[in-house]
């Protein structure tokens, strides 16, 4: 099977990039390996796709329909870290990218890097500081009012708890689907 493992650290965790630009993500394997695989999980298309394999000897193998101009892997410092370079970014590149090594017929996955490609990057948020008051401000608490309309009011926590429960149920469904896809991919790799 597949194991998400801390023996493969990936950075950054999230990337927000603009269409037609390029980006890179790093993977640092902390275990013996003969090369590094890169996969992409596409939530939209519900597929776990093999992108590229880079051996420690410098040989590169690309997945089906994967452009060699778009994806490149660079190894650094005696293959202790690898970077995946993606150019000509498009919305179809959205997904979670995993680096991976194969060992004892198991595929160990990295922690994952979420790539989101947008047409326009959001403007950086400007933070304004409140003016410093010289006089100490006294806090006044109104216990009776807080008990009726406070942050623990049922009007707030019941919808909040319902939303969290629905989110957890959808995550369980996605995790189950992802596990089945990873199993299928593992079987496909080992049949070849």
Give the uncertain stretches in residue-range form: 139-149
Distance between the termini: 16 Å
Q: SSE order in H/E notation?
A: EEEEEEEEEEEEHH
Overall geometry: globular
Tell me what portion of residues adopts beta-strand conformation: 35-45%
**Residue share in helix:** 10-25%
Radius of gyration, CA atoms, in whole angstroms: 23 Å
Q: Give the CATH level 1 class of the largest domain.
A: Mainly Beta
What oligomerization state is this entry in?
single chain
Count of helix runs: 2
Please explain how this structure is put together.
The chain is of the alpha+beta class and 192 residues long. The chain has two domains: 111 residues, Immunoglobulins (Immunoglobulin-like, Sandwich); 37 residues. The protein has two helices and twelve strands; from the N terminus they run ββββββββββββαα. The strands form two sheets. Strands 1, 3, 5, 6, 7, 10, 11 and 12 form an eight-stranded mixed β-sheet that branches. Strands 2-4-9-8 form a four-stranded antiparallel β-sheet, with no helix packed on it. A hairpin with a 2-residue loop joins β10 and β11. It is found in: Membrane. This is CD8B protein. Keywords: Adaptive immunity, Disulfide bond, Glycoprotein, Immunity, Immunoglobulin domain, Membrane, Signal, Transmembrane, Transmembrane helix. One of its GO terms (molecular function) is coreceptor activity.
